[in-house]
């Protein structure tokens, strides 16, 4: 019988059935029959991972933090506007001009004229502030001044003096002291206007007496128009006497000894029960 090869490779002798006629070169076939050597075993040691990109891959590293934003530059401090101080100074200047006109008796000046001058100056300052400077506190000052102007105007529109029960005499010595209305309930009342200069003025005064005699004395040169009604009693107006119980309105005009001129005065007089006299 032929000898069995010791190396596991086919013999170079006479070929046997199922064996190749020539020696096989290269790596032996993996599908060799049982009992014959196959693929040599993998040497022990490190092996490549089965799933290098599998579920056990390490997570990606977090991105580095962003650099902090640079701080904003500080705002420039607002410069103080001189508009407020200038407007405030002009308010006092306007009040001084009104006071001077009042002292010179150029025209009739009441409290409302002062508030009106101040309010006009504040309004001018706010108007200028829309283009130059800023002074927001002028708005609050303007509101307060406007409220004061309204109050003064209402008070001046209805200025009256009410007498106590009994005899009373009103004798104002200055035009600014002249009230719009004089009233007395019981007793005689005298309104003496000879101390007032009515020149270049147009005035109106109301006198109301409930029970008693009413006497009105006017300056010699003022032009007077009297509108009077006496319910029960006599009325003597510049020497013209009338009487009765009809309560009719009686209107008369007297220009004084100098004729037209010297200012005008319109008197509205009501006497409920008593006599009325208007004289110079």
Salient structural properties:
280 residues, alpha/beta, 11-stranded mixed beta sheet, elongated, disordered N terminus, LiaF-like_C, Cell wall-active antibiotics response LiaF-like C-terminal domain-containing protein, transmembrane, membrane, transmembrane helix
Describe the structure.
With 280 residues, this protein is an alpha/beta fold. Among the domains are: 83-157, no CATH class; 160-279, no CATH class. It is built from three helices and eleven strands; from the N terminus they run H-H-H-E-E-E-E-E-E-E-E-E-E-E. The protein has helices spanning 83-103, 111-129, 137-157, and strands at 160-162, 168-170, 181-186, 189-192, 202-211, 214-217, 223-237, 240-244, 250-254, 264-273, 276-279. Strands 1, 2, 3, 4, 5, 6, 7, 8, 9, 10 and 11 form an eleven-stranded mixed sheet that branches. Strand 7 (223-237) and strand 8 form a beta hairpin. The radius of gyration is 60 Å and the shape is elongated. The model is unreliable at 1-18 and 26-32 (pLDDT under 50).
């Amino acid at each position: 019988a032929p000898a069995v090869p010791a190396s596991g490779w086919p013999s170079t002798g006479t070929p046997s059935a199922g064996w190749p006629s020539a020696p096989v070169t290269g790596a032996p076939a993996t599908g060799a029959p049982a009992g014959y050597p196959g693929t040599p075993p993998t040497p022990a040691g490190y092996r490549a991972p089965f799933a290098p990109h599998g579920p056990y891959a390490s997570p990606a590293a977090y991105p580095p933090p962003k650099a902090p934003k640079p701080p904003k530059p500080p705002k420039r401090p607002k410069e103080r506007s001189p508009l407020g101080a200038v407007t405030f100074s002009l308010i006092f200047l306007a009040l001084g001009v009104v006071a001077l006109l009042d002292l010179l008796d150029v025209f009739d000046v009441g409290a409302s004229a002062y508030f009106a001058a101040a309010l006009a100056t504040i309004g001018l300052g706010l108007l200028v502030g829309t283009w130059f400077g800023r002074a927001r506190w002028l708005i609050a000052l303007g509101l307060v001044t406007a409220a004061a102007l309204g109050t003064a105007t209402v008070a001046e529109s209805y200025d009256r003096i009410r007498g106590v029960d009994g005899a009373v005499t009103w004798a104002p010595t200055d035009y600014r002291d002249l009230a719009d209305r004089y009233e007395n309930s019981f007793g005689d009342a005298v309104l003496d206007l000879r101390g007032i200069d009515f020149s270049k003025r147009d005035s109106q005064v109301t006198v109301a007496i409930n029970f008693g005699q009413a006497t009105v004395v006017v300056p010699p040169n003022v032009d007077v128009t009297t509108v009077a009604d006496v319910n029960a009693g006599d009325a003597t107006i510049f020497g013209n006497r009338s009487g009765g119980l009809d309560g009719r309105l009686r209107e008369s005009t007297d220009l004084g000894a100098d004729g037209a001129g010297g200012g005008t005065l319109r008197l509205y007089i009501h006497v409920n029960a008593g006599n009325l006299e208007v004289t110079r």
